[in-house]
Structures are given as structure tokens and as C-alpha cells.
Amino acid sequence: MTVTLADVAARARVSPATVSRVLNGNYPVAESTRERVLRAVDELDYVLNGPASSLAAATSDLVGVLVHDIADPFFGIMASAAQSSIGEGGSGRGGGEKLAVVCNTGGSPERELTYLTLLQRQRAAAVILMGGSLEDPAHLAATTGKLAKLAEAGTRVVLCGRPPVTGDANAAALVFDNRGGARRLTEHLLELGHRRIGYAAGPADRTTTRHRLEGHRAALTAAGVAEGPTVHSPYDRQAGYRATAELLARDPDLTAVVAANDTVALGVCAALRERGLSIPGDVSVAGFDDLPFSVDAVPSLTTVHLPLHEAGTRAGRLAMGTEDPPAGGLARVPAELVVRGSTGRPRE
Amino acid sequence: MTVTLADVAARARVSPATVSRVLNGNYPVAESTRERVLRAVDELDYVLNGPASSLAAATSDLVGVLVHDIADPFFGIMASAAQSSIGEGGSGRGGGEKLAVVCNTGGSPERELTYLTLLQRQRAAAVILMGGSLEDPAHLAATTGKLAKLAEAGTRVVLCGRPPVTGDANAAALVFDNRGGARRLTEHLLELGHRRIGYAAGPADRTTTRHRLEGHRAALTAAGVAEGPTVHSPYDRQAGYRATAELLARDPDLTAVVAANDTVALGVCAALRERGLSIPGDVSVAGFDDLPFSVDAVPSLTTVHLPLHEAGTRAGRLAMGTEDPPAGGLARVPAELVVRGSTGRPRE
DNA sequence: GCCTCGATAGAAAGCGCTTTCCATCGGCGA
DNA sequence: TCGCCGATGGAAAGCGCTTTCTATCGAGGC
């Protein structure tokens, strides 16, 4: 029914072994033979049976990319970049065509684990975990254990924007300088003269949230400025909207609000505007990530630029083995302050 | 080294066949036996070998989701919804755990074909194609042929936001009412009194572009209003920005600009604002899709709402076979006009 | 001119699972 | 009490490929 490798072999008048060798290209085959085989493949419209191939070779050409939320451009950009760089790599088995698959964990540790198991089951060639992780110890232990098992089974593990757990030696990690970026952002606000700064943070139990908050606090401490109100909430627009009400309730005289990320900042702006507060006239607003839309916001958003595309590309290369893992298994990705229109001097 | 099904069988003192049956659950196994097996699985930390399983069963639990651009929320939202509904479906083989993998074609027909081949190779259980297709006949023929082959091999094919090619009987299709939505949008502008309307269209060779443009023109024709300038460009912000310059050059007296989608509309707004034109005071602007950010735009965007989440969910269910395919294999998804702040009466 | 060696190609043994027969066993109707 | 049936579980034959391990054939080397 379906064409098998044996059919191709018969047609090309060679053994199945030879066909396999031509297809995988890691064994010398005479040019004339190769051509004959390729012609047969073409004529029969043969498609390799992936499962059979993976079974025999004990590895597949699947690369898993785990993200918290595909619909969020933060992940979309990284995932897309990773997928491109994975697609272009060309030396592996099966003609080097790797299938990069992105999986949406929804930020849930259970689904993360489920997907990791599924990928382990498929004998994935590599796994990339994007975005910060939950700091819940139980979750951390479970995930780390699973990753160790994957690594042991020959699956390459890459972390992108996720700090490695100590002892997690077999994963290459790309970590964003969230702390430094957040610090510079708050310093910028302080330099402008702000002294009452609210902070609309992300979920309390995420590494990313903690690091950004730490950077923010470090700047305040260094300047000897008292910390303003902080509200934790999810990484979405609604959250920013609601957090703003809370922030303002806690300190009606805020002159600036720092948001966990650009999306949250959008919500903050909407809430502020609704109360008749002008930006940055009455209140300055800052985001984080520098997502594409932040330049289009009105006013355009002061934020911290994260080279998401580059990071994703690099993660993809690491997963392919095209790029050597960084020394110590960990590379820092810089975060750069971008000053735009949403921040200014406080009034009076 | 790695634990195999045979190991589990030995430990549970049953045959491999029984273990397989317990794991796949489509055969009666005594409760006590089942428990023994599951305990053994747990104790040995056994993970099924996917390739082996797929090889023997001649099908895998992979579901491919092809999108033009993951980083675009339009696709992100649909893909994410599809992935959720696929993850929750629970009756298939391997415990019903399907692995929904999203693949980024970048809008390139070649990559689309490559991914389809890769999925065919993996014996995917289903494939979902999201977003309009290129209308290039060669491409259409190639893709249709490939889809036919997939269907023939038992892979379910679902189109979501992509019109089925005639004769492509074995695919279930969800099509957006792009024509109707665009028509209502332009009618809205006409009712407001606009007579000089520019159109920042998408790429000329996409079905989506064509349908939206057709709807727009239908409204104009019905009202007896002459068509304004139209510029084709990609579906991104930059494109909208540039298109606006062109549109204004062709007709400096435009009172409204309709954009191919919300993202493009954002670029249009930016360009307009930069020239000192107020929205909607000087020029009204409308988008399409109603992506989450459009409500946050300033002014908030008048657009056409597409139930992307619902469509994605439905596509996922169709792929899982959880939902019956629509009669005739084709279901229309409504597109609803949403009037917000970016459109108003033309001046004077 | 014979033997050795490099370059190719074939034979065959799995890879780890599923699934089609069968075999077995306890219970129930006659 | 005997035979038959439904409910379970085992044996074994693959699924389609990869990959040793060999075999063969020319070309040189001495």
C-alpha cells in the first residue's frame, strides 16, 4: 500500500541498506548508485517512515520548544526565531530536517511535565524551555529530574530566559539580565526625579518576576529611596489595569509606575488614562521586553529591550548542536534600557 | 539501559501484550492485573517508546498545526486554543495524550510543504492549516496533492481560516466571513459619510487579502461610491506605515483608511499621527481581526471581530475527531463589526 | 603475478511495540 | 454433571528502518 524503503530498493535494484545510506548520507555510496536510488525515490514518491526510522536509530528529529503562552509575542518571537534556526540547520539524520514543535504549557507545571514526557516518549533530539520557571520547590525538583533523564537519554536541553537549577549541569542556558535591566530602568526614573514609584509585578512565584523586582529594589536601595507599593498579578493587560487601581489606592501620589512587562504596562496606561491622568505628565509608565507594539503605544513606551529574536535563534542553534554551548553552560543576554515617551520628569 | 515494556511485563509478571493493553486501554484487563502493571510502570519509571509504538500501530499521536507566523497574535491565539482543545481530548491511543505541535511556515509555500512532508513522515494523526493560502496555482496544486495524500494515509486534515480547494473533499474547513466582515466595515464608514476611502491591503496573492478586498469593493459598488486608492503590502506594522504614505500621495484628501488587519492599522495610525493628522478627526482608521491590543490603541480601533479562540478550539476538536465535521465539510465563522473610537464622521 | 587494502554493497539481526490468533479458566444452562 | 461461553491473558508475527558484520571487486605494491 504505502511505499516502503524496500520498494525503493527493489526499483533501484539495490539493497535496502543502500537506500538507507543514500537517504541518511553518512556512508559512502557511489555517485551512480545514489542517483539511481534518488530517482526511484522520486518516481515512487517515497516518504520515509519516521517512527520506524526513529525506532531503529534510537533518536528522532523532533525538537520540542516549550513556551508559557504562544499567543504572547514575547514567546512568539523567541519561538519563531528558534524554529527558523532549527529549520535551517542541515547536517543531522533524515537529511537534517528537524521538526521544531512548539508546545504551550500555559505556565502550568503539570502541562510542562506532560509535554516533557511526551517529548521523551518521542525520543526528541532536543528540548528548549523558554521563559522563567515557577520557584515552587516541588515543581522544580520534578522538572529538573525529568530534564536530567532527558539529557541522560541523549536529548539536548536548552534553557532560554530560564535560570538553570544548580547542579543542572547538562543544560545550556541563556539567561536574560532581568535584574540589571530592571535596575537601570528604575535608575532612569530616579534620575528624572521620581520618588514615589509603584510596581506592577508579575506572578509572585516566577523567577522572572523575582529578578526584575530585585533589580528595581536594588536601584531604590542604592539611591536611598523608599520602596513604593508593589502589586503582584499575571503577565497580562487586565492584570496591569487592575494593579493600577490597587497601586493608586495604596499611594494616590505616585508619580511613576513600573510594569512587569510591556503588556502589563498597556493595561496600566489604560487605567491611568481612564482616571484622567496624563502620561507622562501626571504619571510616568515603564514596561519591560520592548515588544513590537511598545513603540506604537501612545505615548511610546519606555522599556527595557530584550533581544528576543537573537536569543531564540541562539537557543535553536544550541539545540541543533550548531553552536557550542557557552562556557560554564550559561550565557548572559544583555538587557538595554530604551527611553521613549512614556516617562518624563514628575510634575512640579 | 532504558526501561522497555518487556521489563515492565517481567516485573508485573505478565506478558508484554498485557502491559500494552493496560497502557492503551482498549481491551479488557482485570482490575487486579491492571493495578499490578501500573505499579510496575511507576516503580520502573517507564516511558513508552513513541516511535516503536507508532511504528507498530501505524499512526502517531502527533497533531501538526501549521501557521504563517507564530509571533503574530492572530495565529498565536488560534494555535493556542487549538492546542488546548487537543490536549484535553482523551480517548485516543497512548492514553489520548496527543502532542500538538505548531509549525511556523513564515508564509512560505515551500516551508509549508516541507512541514507537511515531515508530518507525513511522522504519520501524524492530524494536520491543521491555519490562515489563508497563497493563490499561486502551482503552490495550490502541490499543497492540495500533499493534503490528499495525507488524508489517504489516514491523517485528518483541518483548514482553519483557509478556504478549501474545490475537490478537496476530505478536509474539514472553517472559513472566516472575511468578505462579509469587510463589507460591513466599509458600509459603516460610508454611513458615517466617508466618500474617499483608502485601502491598505495585505499581500496581493493571499486568499484572505482578496476576500477582504472584495467585501470592501462590494460595499462601495452597492453605494455607488468610487473606489479610493489601494496599496498591497505585507501584514505587518511597517507595511501599514509605508502604505499610508503611498495612499496619501495618491489621494491627499482621504478621510478614511481601511487596513488589512489590526496590526497594519497600527502602522497606519502611527504614520497619520506623525503627519499631524488626528484620528478620527482628520482621518478615520479601521482594522480587522480585533486582536487584543486593538482595544488599547489610542484611539481604540474600530475593527471586525473574528472569534479566533473559538475557531482554534473547534479546529482542534475537528482534528481530534471529538467534533463531527460540518455538513459539506465547511463551516462559516461569522465576522462581526466592532465600532470603537478610531472612526467618526468626516470633517465638515 | 600474487596479495593486501580501500571502496562499495548486501545480509541479517534487531529496535520496542501492537495485535491477531489461541489457550485457559470459571461459571452457568441443561 | 458435562459442554459451552465470556472474560482474560499469552505467543508470536510483524511494523519499516538502521547498522554492524561480511563479501566482493579493482587497484596498486613488491
What does this structure look like?
The structure is a homodimer of 348-residue chains. Chain A has 348 residues and is of the alpha/beta class. Chain A has three domains: 44 residues, Orthogonal Bundle (434 Repressor (Amino-terminal Domain)); 147 residues, Response regulator (Rossmann fold, 3-Layer(aba) Sandwich), CATH 3.40.50; 129 residues, Response regulator (Rossmann fold), CATH 3.40.50.2300. Helices cover 45% and strands 15% of the residues of chain A. Chain A contains twelve helices and twelve strands. In chain A, the strands form three sheets. Chain A has a six-stranded parallel β-sheet, with helices on both faces. The first copy, chain A, has a four-stranded parallel β-sheet with strand order 7-6-8-9, with helices on both faces. A two-stranded antiparallel sheet of chain A has the order 10-12. In chain A, helix 7 links the parallel strand 3 and strand 4. In chain A, helix 1 packs across helix 2 and helix 1 packs across helix 3. The radius of gyration of chain A is 25 Å and the shape is elongated. About 2% of the residues of chain A have low confidence. Chains A and B meet through helix 4, helix 5, strand 2, helix 6 and helix 11 of A and helix 4, helix 5, strand 2, helix 6 and helix 11 of B. The first copy, chain A, binds a DNA duplex (30 and 30 nucleotides) through helix 2 and helix 4.
